[in-house]
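ok trying again, last paste got cut off:
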Amino acid sequence: MRWLIAILFFWFNLISFSQTKNKNIHVSKQTKEIVQKMQMDNQVLGNELDFGAIEPQQHALFGELRSVATEKELIKLTDHKNPSVRCYAFWALCDIYKVDILPILIKHIHDTAKVYVQFGCIGNLWSVGDFFIHHATSDSTHPSILDSTQLATLDSFLLVIPNKLRSRFIAIQRIVPDNELYNLLKSMVTKEHNGEALVALAKFQKEEDILIIQQFLREGKYQNLDNAIKYKAICEFPHPDFFPLLKRDLTLPRNHVFIDSEYRELYHAIASYRNIEARELLKYAYKQIKDSNLGIDCVDFLFSAMEKYYDPVYNNLFWELWIVENKINFTVFRYLTESDSAKATVQAAETINNNFSEFIKSQSLFTEMLELVFSRDSAIALDIISSKIEVANNYQFRILNPILIDLQHSTLINPLFERLEYEYDPTIYLQIVQVLISYKDVNINQRILETQKTNFNLTRDSGGKKLDELLTENNIR
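nice, full thing came through this time. structure:
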C-alpha cells in the first residue's frame, strides 16, 4: 500500500509542478507560426506514405519544427491543445535533445485524445499517450529510449494509475512476477476482468488463484475476454485442474468456430503440460485439422506449440508432421536426429531430394540435413547433389556453391560440366566455373576452355567478359 501511495503522490505532484513550469516558457514567433500550420491537420505522418511518394506537407512542417524549436519550447508543446502538435513535439524532443522523458510519459498517461498516425502505407488512430510511449519504448522498428529502470518505473505507473491506454496492456505483458504487484494484479482480474492481468497473475502459479482462473475459463463467465487470453494464462500456469477445460474446448461441436489466434493459443496451452495426456490431445488436434480441413495454418500452430514447449514425448507427432506434412525446422530436426539418427537420415534424404526447392530456402537446415546424410551414406548424398546441379537456379546455386567447393568430389565434375555445356545464364555458369576452378586441376581447366568454345553463350555480352576475367585471374588460357 505504501508503494501505491508513493506512486500516486509522485504523479499528482508531477502534474502540478509541470503545469506551473510550462506556463513560464516563452515560445518564439517562428515556432508559433510552424505550430499554427501544423495544428490545421490532426495527423502525424512519416516522410513517405507509400513507395516512391513525395514527403507530406505535415512531415515537412515537422522538419521545420525540429530545426527551429528549442528544448524548452518542445517540452511546452508536448502540452499543446492539438494532439498532432503534442506528438510531433515529443518526437522532435526525443530525436534532438537528451532529456529525461519519463516525467512527460507519466504525465500523459490519461492523454487519450486521438490522432491519425501513418508511416508507409498503413495508418490508424492512436491515443496521444500511446504514441508517446510507443515512440519511447522499443519494438521491431526502433530501440528503446528508456533504460530498463525507467521502463520498469513507467510500467508500474501504467499499472497503478487506472487508464485507458493500450500501453497498459503491453506493460502488463512485460512484467515479471513481483510480490509488490501481486495484489494489484489480482484486483485488476477480479474487479476489472482484465485479461492481460489474468495472464500476469498466472505467472505467480499460486494454488489460491486456481478458482479465480477457472472462473475465467468456464464457458459463459466473463465473455468479454476472448479464449486466446484464457489459454495464455494456462501456458503460464499449466495446472492439472485446467486440463479438462482444454479438452472440453478442443472437442467442442463442429458448429463452434475458433479464430486463428484461439487455435494457436489452445495448442500452446495443451503443449505446455509436456506429458503423455497432452501428446494424445495434440494428436487428436492433428486428426481434427486433417478431418475438418482447417488448413496449413493450424498445422503450423500445432508445430510451433510443441517446439516452444518441447518434450521428447512429442517426438512421434513431430515425426508424423515431418513425414506427412513436410513440416520441419532446424531446431526440431536436431531433436529428432538425437532421438533416432538413422530414421532422420532416411527422412532428410527424402526431404531434400523431393522438396529441394522449398528446403534449400532454409540454408542452415538444408546444410544440416545434407551433412547428416553425407556422414551416414555419402553415395546417396552425392547422388542427390548431382541431380540438383542439373536443376538449381541462381539462388539455389549460391547455396550449393560453398558446399560443392568444400566437397570437391570427383563424382560431381561431370554433372557440373553437363550443366555448363548448355547453360546461358551468366549468374549460374560463372558459379559453376568457380566451383570447377576450385579443384585446381589442369585437365579440368582445359575442359573449361573447350566448353567455352562449344557453348557460345559463355562468350556473349557482359557475362562472357566476366568469364574471361575469371579465367585470366586464375591463369587459365
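cool. The chain has a mean pLDDT of 87. The radius of gyration is 31 Å.
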